[in-house]
Amino acid sequence: MIELKHLNKEYKTKKGTIYGVRDVNLSIRKGEIFGIVGYSGAGKSSLLRCINLLEKPTSGEVIVDGVNLTTLSKPQLRNARQKIGMIFQHFHLISSKTVFDNVAFALKAAEKSAEEIKKRVPELLQLVGLADKADQYPAQLSGGQKQRVAIARALANDPQVLLCDEPTSALDPMTTKSILALLRDINQSLGITIVLITHEMEVVKDLCDNVAIMQGGVVIEQGAVYDIFANPVQPLTREFIQHALDFKLPDPLWDKLDSGSKVVKILFRGHAAEQAIINQMLKVTNVQGNILHGKIEYIKDKPLGTFIMEVKGEQSEIDKALQFLVDQSCGVEVVNRD
Ligand SMILES: Nc1ncnc2c1ncn2[C@@H]1O[C@H](COP(=O)(O)OP(=O)(O)OP(=O)(O)O)[C@@H](O)[C@H]1O
Q: Which residues form a coiled coil (predicted)?
């Protein structure tokens, strides 16, 4: 659906050239939810805004549904953009217009008739759960409701793609969940391809099919969300995942551990998460194990288990135990106190 080929975006400033996006190649499939993750300044917004040419790439190709947007004339680009909706962190609603008129604005821009607008706006407001708010003004709405209006407006012209620029960063956790659920519904019921940028891996875990991690304008790692969580390669990716899975041992627990023991983080991928592998390990080796932390996450309905264990025994037996886990395809990492 979306192909980015050797995409570069440079900003010329008084202080020199700033590289927003550097040689990015991405392929986003029709109907998927694709996440782009990175810290502030990583180039996420620059990349997203290149997809609808809000930012003109310095070089490279942006192909949406088979059309290379970088080659289009202005009127052609205007037409192509109607098939790409966009929502933002701070909603970008027009404060002097009612909810109805904010949504109608997108239809007017696409030169829809008054009759069509009268029919379409209530349908859109129904879709986002705001059928009773048509006559209210943005100031009378909560953050979540404002984002719903923005989503209705973005969907007005039946886009094939919805670009989401940190859509939940200004919202509380409960509202975040409801907006993510709405985006998932829209993706499933309307088949719209969603590209979403965020700095929270939690959002990616709950919503996305595939993800790209950005640093310094470069995509440093990409893949299916489950694979990225189960086998992160880059240190930055590991850092993001650590935040999302939250498995840092608290200090009082470290204080209680035997000085001769090892603390091991074990990752169970796929069906291994549902089997009694730790039990088997304790049976076939002469070590004692004490589980300090454990949880099983379901990502895209596939289990991913993370356990932190204190392992005690002769070094040779500990080595044997860890090798047993590796042989069962578990990820094994000795954890040291920070
Ligand atoms: N219009 C601009 N002029 C000059 N530099 C820019 C411009 N827009 C972005 N940049 C620079 O490009 C780099 C990438 O910025 P970008 O906003 O794309 O990152 P980001 O990952 O979206 O960050 P954030 O999460 O803070 O929005 C940064 O160094 C930023 O300062």
A: none
